[in-house]
Fold:
Amino acid sequence: MIWANLLHLSCNMWGDREAPDIGEYVTARPYLRFDDDLWRELLGKMAGAGMNMVVIDLGDGVRYDSHPEIAVDGAWTVSRLQEELAIARDLGLEPIPKLNFSTTHDTWLGPYSKCVSTDAYYAVCRDLIAEVCDIFGKPRFFHIGMDEEGYDCQRNFEYVVIRQFELWWRDLYYLVDQVESGGSRAWIWSDYLWGHPDEFFNKMPKTIVQSDWYYGEAFGESDAAVRAYTDLESHGYDQIPTGSNFVNAVNFGLIVPYCRKRIAPERLLGFLQTPWFPTLPACRDHHLRAIEQVRKAKDELSL
Structure:
């Protein structure tokens, strides 16, 4: 059973401008917002809590050999990233890469975020996925995001890009092909399902790991995000349900028993916690609470 936590190396994925209603850490910055000491502490706490996977949101936090031009100031070198992956593995944590290619969350791509679905874009995506697969040594999974691609989520952006209809699917298939060519299994957020159920189940390959996410506490079946867990199960998809302490302090403890009752063991690969805060000292308590919630949920299963 996977017990995973998402940690950010880069957090340049939400916004391209300053605005009064945009959160403190949302707007992209040209420098790395990351604390080494906190990173090491959190890895240790995760291992101590019995967690076994860390999903690392890489973004522009790495000076990739293939495309160093997208790196922010202070980005890790490839050798530094490899050193940190070894440390995580020594703690019993399987490191999994994440690069979010949703147009709502691709500010990290720099100029290429304005070249979506062009030959230049496809070449950069291909290069980055291949290099990351190599750096991680053909990781078991590769999270490519693909969530929240719609105008409502980009209404505060200066530059709005939305793929829809067949183009969204063509690009998804292209990215998945690159991941599989690198020896990994693609992993995505499942919220496209919420508004396009028939299309989703007709076109979404079963080979792609699904992470439906719900951060509330009501778990009413009328909510498409909640209903998606059972819908994905009824159609035979492998799942890693995702919770968070971003909104409240009880979600993760509720999502585990809810999904265990509704998803067959052979398709329930595990659970993912998503604090959605940068790896910075000011956010330390939030991260520690996220880890503690996973520890508690995991321990309650053995009672």
User: Anything to note?
Assistant: The mean pLDDT is 97.
